[in-house]
C-alpha cells in the first residue's frame, strides 16, 4: 500500500474534527463531541502505527540505511524559480517516531478527558482545541520545508494559548496564556531571522536541499555561508543559533523557560499532552531535523549543549523546593528536555559519534510516555483532592491504588532505575556525554540525583505522608467515586505498560543520526554510579517525607538564602518584569505612544484643519453680494482681454 | 489754443469732477445733485459738438426726468439727510485697482489706434431732417427701431406698475378678524385690529 | 472741431465709464448704484456722438443710437426704481449688503 493514499489523512482528520466540533459541537453534538474527537484520534493512531510498521519493517530501508521518503509535496508559494514554500510530508525515522508519539499520547489524553472534563460547559470547545493542537503538531513533525515547520510552529503556539487560557474567567489563566504566547513569539523572531539567513545562503527553503547544499563543503552555498560573517561570527553559526533560540523558546530552555510553570493553569490533560510530551519537544525536534547542519558548527552545538545542561540543573534545583505538584512536574519536564538538548549538543553526525542523537531521540520517546503518565496521575489526584498543593494531600495510596502504582512506576522510570524505560534512555545520554564532555557528564549525573530526590519527595508527599484525619474523613470521594471513572483509569494502565515495555525496544536500530543502525551494548559498570546515586536520593527522600517530621524544615532553614532563592525560582521572573516594565515600557513604549498621539495623529488633524480653513476661505467667495460678483466678473473680463490682446500670438 | 478748445477742457473737467463727486460723496442727496450737474455738463459737451437735438433730449429726459425720479425715490425710501455707510475697505481698494487697470488698458488701446475718418464731408442737419429720417423706411431709416422702442417703453411701464404694486386686499367687515394677505414682499402680517377699507397702491 | 483729436474725447468718455464702474462696485445704496449706471450709459452716449462726428460725418447713425439709448435708459431707470421699492418692502433697507440670501 503506498503512502500517498493515507498519509495526508493523518494530519487532516484532526483538522476536520476541529472544524466540525468548533462550528457545530456546542449546539448539535454537545457531549458527543468527546466521542467524535476520540474516534478520530483512534483512527489516526491506527494509521500512524500502520505507517510506522510499513516504514520501519517493510520498505524504509535501502542497503540497511533508513531513507527519508517524501510521499507528498505541493508547491504553495513560489517566490523565485529556486525558492518556494512547499507543503509536504516527509517520512524518516524521527518523523515516523514522532507520528506515533503524538498520536498515541493524544489518544490517551482524549480518553482521559472524557472522564476528567465531564460536566464542563465548554466540553466540545475543549475537544475542538485538542484536535487543532493534534493537527498542528502532526503537521509540524512531517514538514518538508523550513517555512512549513514555522507555520505549524505558530499554529502549535496558538493551540497552546487557547488551551492554557481555557478557563478564561480566571485572571491567572489568562495571564499565563498571554505569557506563554508572548515568550514563544519573542523566541520565534529569532527563529524567523535564522530561517531567513539559512534560506538566503542556501537559496532554498526545502529541508533536504538545504541540508545537502550546506553540508557539502565544496558547494558554493556552503562557502558563502561560512565565509560571510557578522561581528566576527560566521553566518552559519548565527543562523543555527537563531534557529536554536526559537527552539529554546518553545522547549522552555533557560532563560526562556518562564512560561512553562505558569502554563500549568490549563486543565491537567492539556498539560499532559502539550507541556510534557509533545509541544515542548518541538525545539528538540527542530535541532534534530537540522542536525547534519549543526554537526558542522561546533560553536552552535556547544551553545545547544550548555544551554541544555544549565536548564536541566536549574530546573532540578528549583523543583526540589516547589509545593504545587503540577509545578514540580513542569520543572521536571524542563529538566528532562535539558537532557535531550545536551544529548544532541554532545553528539556528532554519523556512526558511533551519533550516539547522542540516538540517545536524545530515545529519551524523547520514553519521556513522552512516563511524563504524560505522571501528569495524568496528577490530574486524577487533583480530581479527588480538589487542590494542587502537596500539603493538602497525603496517604492516598489506599484510596487510589491504580493511580498509586502508575505514579510509582513512572517515578522509578524518571529516576532512571532499571529495568524501566527511563534507565535505558538516560544511560545512553550519559554515555554519550561521558565520551565527549566530562563537565556536562558531571552535570548530568548530579541532575539525575536531584531528579530522583524531588520526584520521590513528590511521590511520598502525595501517597504516604499520613496526616491525622484519614482521607475518608477529609471527605475525599467515596469508594465508588474514589479514583475516577473508567475512562480516567484506562489511559493510566496503558501508559504504565508502555513505560515498562518501551525500554526494551532496540531503538538504535531504528533511529540514528544517519539512518544506519547502531550497536549499543549496555555497560553495567558505567551505570552503577548514576543508579547508586539515584537510589541514595530516593532513600533520602523517603527519610524526609515518608512520615511527617521536622527534618525538611530544618534543612530548608539551614540552607537559608539558597533555599529561598530556589523557592523563588531564582528571581528570574522578577528580572523579566523589571526589564519590561521599567525599561522597555518607559524608554520605548511611552515615547512611541506620545509620537503616535501627537505627531502622527496631530499631522492628520493638521491636514484636516488646513483643509477646513481653505474650504472656509473658498466658501467666502460665494458671498451673495452683487458687487463682489461684479468685481469678479470685471476682473475676469479684463484678464481675458489682456490675454487675448497681448499674450495670444 | 482757441476758446473752442479751452471750452472743451473746462467742460470735460467739470463732467469728470462732478462724476467723481457723485460716486464718492457720503450724503445721498448731494450725490443726486452732483449727478445732475454731471449730466448737464454732458449736455454742454453735446452742444459743443454741435448736436443740439441730442443735447436738448439729454436735458429734457435725463436731467428733467430721470434725476427727478431718482430724487423722488430717495425721498420715498429713506431719510435724505443721513450719511450713508462707508463701503468695506477691501472692496474700495480692489475696486479702485480694477478700475485703474481697466482704464489704463482701454486708453492704451484707444490711444494706439489710428482712427481714420471715412469722409470729410460735413452734414449739418436740422431737427426736421432728423425727425423725417427717424420715421422713414428707406435706406438709413429708423422706423423699425422706433416702433420697437415704443413697445419697450410700454412694456417697461406695465412692468413697473406690476412690480411695484401691492396686491389688493379684500373688503372686510367690521366684526371679523382676518389675516391680511402678504404684499410682494413675502411677509405675513397678522393684523388683529379691524380693517375698514381695502388699500390699493 | 479738428483742433481736438478724437482720442481726447474718448479719454473723457473712458474716464467717465470707469468712474461709473467704481461707483457700481463701491456704493452700498441701491439708488446710488443706479446713478453710477446712468453715468456709464452717458459715457457710451458721448462715444457714439463723437464717433459719428469724427469718423462718419455724412451719416446720422450715432445720433439715432444715442436717442434710443437715452430712451431705453429712462425706461430702465423706472424699472429699477420699481424693483428698489419692492426690495425695500421685503428687507426694509436698500443696503445692497443686506440682500445676500444667495450666499453659501
Overview of the molecule:
The complex is a heterotrimer of chains A (649), B (201) and C (104). In chain A, helix 10 (235-250) runs antiparallel to helix 13. With 649 residues, chain A is mainly alpha-helical. In chain A, the strands form three sheets. A two-stranded antiparallel sheet of chain A has the order 1-2. In chain A, a hairpin with a 2-residue loop joins strand 1 (61-62) and strand 2 (65-66). Chain A has 26 helices and six strands. Chain A is 71% helix and 4% strand. By secondary structure, chain B is mainly α. The longest helix of chain B has 26 residues, at 52-77. The model of chain B is unreliable at 184-201 (pLDDT under 50). Chain C is an all-alpha fold. Chain C has helices at 6-26, 30-55, 61-91. Chains A and C meet through helix 26 of A and helix 1 of C.
Number of helices of chain A: 26
Beta content of chain A comes to under 5%
Shape label of chain C: elongated
Shape of chain A: globular
Largest sheet composition of chain C: none
Which regions of chain C have little confidence, pLDDT < 50, spanning 5+ residues? none
Oligomer: heterotrimer
Range of helix content of chain C: over 70%
Distance between the termini of chain A: 91 Å
In total, the number of strands of chain C is 0
Class derived from helix and strand content of chain C: mainly alpha
How large, in whole angstroms, is the Cα Rg of chain A? Answer: 30 Å
**Radius of gyration of chain C from CA coordinates:** 17 Å
Mean pLDDT reading of chain A = 88
Q: Roughly what is the average pLDDT of chain C, rounded to an integer?
A: 90
Biggest sheet statistics of chain A: 2 strands, antiparallel
Q: What strand line-up does the widest sheet of chain A have?
A: 1-2
The total beta strand count of chain A reads 6
Record the SSE blueprint:
The complex is a heterotrimer of chains A (649), B (201) and C (104).
Chain A: H1 4-7, H2 9-29, H3 32-59, E1 61-62, E2 65-66, E3 69-78, E4 84-91, H4 93-116, H5 123-141, H6 146-164, H7 171-202, H8 207-215, H9 220-227, E5 229-230, E6 233-234, H10 235-250, H11 259-262, H12 268-277, H13 282-289, H14 291-294, H15 298-319, H16 325-345, H17 355-385, H18 401-415, H19 421-436, H20 438-463, H21 486-501, H22 524-545, H23 551-559, H24 561-567, H25 572-619, H26 626-647
Antiparallel strand pairs in A: 1-2, 3-4, 5-6
Helix pairs in contact in A: 2-3, 2-5, 3-4, 3-5, 4-5, 4-12, 4-17, 4-21, 5-6, 6-7, 7-10, 10-13, 10-15, 12-17, 15-16, 15-20, 16-17, 16-19, 16-20, 17-18, 17-19, 17-21, 18-20, 18-21, 19-20, 20-22
Chain B: H1 3-24, H2 28-48, H3 52-77, H4 89-112, H5 127-135, H6 143-164
Chain C: H1 6-26, H2 30-55, H3 61-91
Helix pairs in contact in C: 1-2, 2-3
Amino acid at each position: 500500500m503506498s503512502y500517498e493514499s493515507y498519509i495526508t489523512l493523518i494530519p487532516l482528520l484532526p483538522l476536520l474534527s476541529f472544524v466540525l466540533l468548533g462550528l457545530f459541537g456546542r449546539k448539535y453534538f454537545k457531549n458527543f463531541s468527546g466521542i467524535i474527537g476520540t474516534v478520530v484520534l483512534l483512527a489516526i493512531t491506527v494509521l500512524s502505527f500502520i505507517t510506522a510498521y510499513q516504514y520501519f519493517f517493510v520498505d524504509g530501508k535501502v542497503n540497511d540505511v533508513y531513507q527519508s521518503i517524501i510521499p507528498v509535496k505541493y508547491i504553495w508559494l513560489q517566490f523565485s524559480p529556486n525558492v518556494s514554500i512547499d507543503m509536504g510530508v516527509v517520512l524518516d525515522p524521527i518523523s515516523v517516531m514522532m507520528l506515533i508519539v503524538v498520536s498515541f499520547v493524544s489518544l490517551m489524553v482524549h480518553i482521559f478527558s472524557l472522564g476528567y472534563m465531564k460536566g464542563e460547559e465548554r466540553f466540545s470547545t475543549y475537544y475542538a482545541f485538542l484536535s487543532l493542537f493534534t493537527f498542528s503538531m502532526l503537521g509540524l513533525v512531517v514538514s518538508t520545508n523550513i517555512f512549513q515547520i514555522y507555520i505549524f510552529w505558530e499554529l502549535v503556539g496558538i493551540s497552546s494559548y487557547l488551551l492554557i487560557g481555557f478557563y478564561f474567567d480566571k485572571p491567572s489563566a489568562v495571564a499565563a496564556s498571554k505569557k506563554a504566547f508572548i515568550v514563544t513569539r519573542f523566541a520565534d523572531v529569532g527563529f524567523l531571522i535564522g530561517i531567513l539567513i539559512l534560506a538566503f545562503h542556501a537559496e532554498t527553503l526545502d529541508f533536504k536541499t538545504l541540508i545537502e547544499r550546506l553540508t557539502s563543503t565544496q558547494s558554493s552555498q556552503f562557502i558563502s555561508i561560512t565565509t560571510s560573517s557578522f561581528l566576527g561570527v560566521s553566518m552559519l553559526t548565527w543562523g543555527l543559533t537563531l534557529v536554536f533560540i526559537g527552539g529554546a523558546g518553545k522547549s522552555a530552555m533557560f532563560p526562556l523557560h518562564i512560561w512553562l510553570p505558569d502554563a500549568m493553569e490549563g486543565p491537567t490533560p492539556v498539560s499532559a499532552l502539550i507541556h510534557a510530551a509533545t509541544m515542548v519537544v518541538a525545539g528538540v525536534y527542530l535541532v534534530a531535523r537540522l542536525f547534519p547542519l549543526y554537526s558542522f558548527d561546533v560553536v552552535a552545538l556547544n551553545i545547544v549543549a550548555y544551554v541544555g545542561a544549565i536548564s536541566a540543573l536549574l530546573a532540578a534545583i528549583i523543583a526540589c523546593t516547589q509545593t504545587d505538584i503540577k509545578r514540580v512536574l513542569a520543572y521536571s519536564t524542563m529538566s528532562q528536555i535539558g537532557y535531550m538538548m545536551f544529548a544532541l549538543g554532545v553528539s556528532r553526525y554519523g556512526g558511533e559519534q551519533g550516539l547522542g542523537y540516538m540517545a536524545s531521540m530515545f529519551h524523547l520517546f520514553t519521556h513522552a510516555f512516563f511524563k504524560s503518565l505522571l501528569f495524568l496521575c496528577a490530574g486524577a489526584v487533583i480530581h479527588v483532592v480538589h487542590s494542587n498543593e502537596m500539603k493538602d494531600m497525603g496517604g492516598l495510596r489506599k484510596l487510589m491504588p491504580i493511580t498509586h502504582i502508575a505514579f510509582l512506576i513512572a517515578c522509578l522510570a524518571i529516576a532512571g532505575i532499571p529495568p524501566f524505560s527511563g534507565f535505558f534512555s538516560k544511560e545512553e545520554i550519559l554515555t554519550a556525554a561521558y565520551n565527549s564532555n566530562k563537565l556536562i557528564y558531571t552535570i548530568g549525573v548530579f541532575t539525575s540525583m536531584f531528579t530522583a530526590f524531588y520526584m520521590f519527595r513528590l511521590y511520598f508527599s502525595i501517597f504516604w505522608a499520613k496526616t491525622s484525619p484519614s482521607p475518608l474523613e477529609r471527605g475525599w470521594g467515596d469508594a465508588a467515586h474514589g479514583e475516577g471513572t473508567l475512562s480516567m483509569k484506562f489511559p493510566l494502565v496503558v501508559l504504565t505498560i508502555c513505560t515498562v515495555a518501551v525500554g526494551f525496544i532496540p531503538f538504535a536500530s531504528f533511529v540514528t543520526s544517519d539512518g544506519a543502525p547502531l550497536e549499543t551494548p549496555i555497560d553495567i559498570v558505567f551505570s552503577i554510579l548514576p543508579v547508586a546515586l539515584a537510589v541514595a536520593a530516593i532513600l533520602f527522600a523517603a527519610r524526609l517525607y515518608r512520615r511527617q517530621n521536622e527534618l525538611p524544615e530544618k534543612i530548608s532553614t539551614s540552607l537559608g538564602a539558597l533555599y529561598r532563592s530556589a523557592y523563588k525560582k531564582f528571581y528570574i521572573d522578577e528580572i523579566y518584569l523589571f526589564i519590561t516594565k521599567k525599561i522597555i515600557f518607559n524608554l520605548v513604549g511611552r515615547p512611541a505612544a506620545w509620537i503616535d498621539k501627537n505627531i502622527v495623529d496631530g499631522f492628520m488633524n493638521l491636514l484636516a484643519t488646513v483643509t477646513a480653513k481653505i474650504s472656509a476661505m473658498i466658501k467666502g467667495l460665494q458671498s451673495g453680494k452683487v458687487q463682489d460678483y461684479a468685481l469678479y466678473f470685471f476682473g475676469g473680463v479684463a484678464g481675458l482681454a489682456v490675454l487675448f490682446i497681448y499674450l495670444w500670438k | 489754443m482757441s476758446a473752442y478748445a479751452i471750452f472743451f477742457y473746462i467742460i470735460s473737467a467739470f463732467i469728470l469732477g462732478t462724476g467723481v463727486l457723485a460716486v464718492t460723496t457720503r450724503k445721498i442727496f448731494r450725490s443726486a445733485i452732483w449727478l445732475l450737474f454731471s449730466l448737464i455738463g454732458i449736455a454742454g459737451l453735446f452742444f459743443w459738438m454741435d448736436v443740439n437735438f441730442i443735447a436738448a433730449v439729454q436735458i429734457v429726459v435725463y436731467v428733467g426726468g430721470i434725476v427727478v425720479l431718482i430724487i423722488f425715490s430717495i425721498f420715498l425710501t429713506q431719510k435724505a439727510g443721513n450719511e450713508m455707510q462707508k463701503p468695506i475697505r477691501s472692496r474700495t481698494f480692489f475696486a479702485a485697482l480694477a478700475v485703474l487697470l481697466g482704464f489704463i488698458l482701454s486708453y492704451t488701446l484707444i490711444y494706439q489706434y489710428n482712427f481714420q475718418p471715412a469722409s470729410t464731408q460735413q452734414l449739418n442737419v436740422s431737427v426736421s431732417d432728423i425727425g423725417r429720417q427717424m420715421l422713414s423706411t428707406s435706406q438709413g431709416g429708423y422706423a423699425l427701431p422706433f416702433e420697437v422702442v415704443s413697445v419697450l417703453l410700454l412694456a417697461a411701464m406695465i412692468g413697473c406698475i406690476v412690480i411695484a404694486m401691492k396686491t389688493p386686499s379684500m373688503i372686510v367687515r367690521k366684526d371679523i378678524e382676518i389675516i391680511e394677505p402678504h404684499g410682494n414682499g413675502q411677509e405675513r402680517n397678522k393684523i388683529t385690529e379691524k380693517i375698514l377699507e381695502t388699500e390699493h397702491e | 472741431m479738428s483742433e481736438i483729436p478724437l482720442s481726447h474725447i474718448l479719454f473723457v468718455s473712458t474716464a467717465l465709464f470707469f468712474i461709473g464702474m467704481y461707483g457700481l462696485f463701491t456704493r452700498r445704496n441701491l439708488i446710488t448704484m443706479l446713478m453710477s449706471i446712468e453715468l456709464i450709459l452717458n459715457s457710451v452716449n458721448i462715444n457714439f456722438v463723437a464717433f459719428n462726428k469724427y469718423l462718419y460725418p455724412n451719416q446720422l447713425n450715432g445720433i439715432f443710437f444715442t436717442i434710443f439709448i437715452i430712451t431705453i435708459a429712462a425706461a430702465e431707470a423706472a424699472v429699477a426704481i420699481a424693483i428698489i421699492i419692492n426690495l425695500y418692502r421685503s428687507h426694509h433697507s436698500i443696503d445692497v449688503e443686506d440682500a445676500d440670501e444667495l450666499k453659501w
